[in-house]
Amino acid sequence: MKVTLYQRLSLSLVIIFILITGLFIWWSENLEQLSRNEAEQRLHLSIADHLA
User: Fold this and answer.
1) 6-22, pLDDT tens digit by residue?
2) Distances in Å between the alpha carbon of 10 and those of 5, 20, 22, 43?
3) 3 in helix, strand or coil?
4) Could you write out the DSSP letters of every residue in 8-27?
């Protein structure tokens, strides 16, 4: 079976879309974790001020 130009183009676009989607998911999870860690640090800092 011969793969046409349009089939190769559509396959390439699907692969690029999947890669970009995966990259976006990875980036958003990292951003969420960083935000959560920063919020916890602020909370612990304010608690430490009250304890000291």
Assistant:
1) 999 999 999 999 999 99
2) 9, 15, 18, 49
3) coil
4) HHHHHHHHHHHHHHHHHHHH
pTM over 0.85: no
Candidates 5, 27, 26; CA nearest to 13 is: 5
- The position carrying tokens 């951003």 is 31
Integer CA distances (angstroms), 29 to 6, 20, 33, in order: 34, 14, 6
- The first and second tokens of residue 30, run together, are 């990292």
Q: Distance between CA atoms of 44 and 52, rounded to whole angstroms?
A: 12
